Amino acid sequence: MAYWLVKSEPSVYSWDQFVTDKQTFWSGVRNYAARINLRAMKKGDEVLYYHSNEGVEIVGIAKVIKEAYQDPTTDDDRWVAVDLKPVKKLKKPVLLEIIKKDKLLANMDLVRLGRLSVQTVKPEEWEIVMKLAGEK
User: Fold this and answer.
1) 103 CB neighbour count, 10 Å cutoff
2) What is d(CA 117, CA 5) in angstroms, rounded to the nearest whole number?
3) What does pTM read for this prediction?
């Protein structure tokens, strides 16, 4: 299993809306590096849900339930979407400020590639985030 992080502004698509919807397709990505990450996602992979711009914090865990397919928001077949479902809200949101202060997370994509909307998360980074969130 691999780990990922997806970003959404809460005013555009919040964690609470995601939970209400019970699942969503992650579409509209128009960055080549993010597209590579979407294509690499496999069913069952776990995903950190990050509120960007407002809140700037990891708030929940989602799961990939359908692997990459043609993005329904465009006719351009170069772009893909995946389906995600919410798994759980974190006990404590993990603020970007806290992540940036943790030397063990200095190489995390969230710190290094701040604008990338779909990112990889290494297993050891996942474990640290889970501890910071009070999940372990």
Assistant:
1) 6
2) 8
3) 0.97
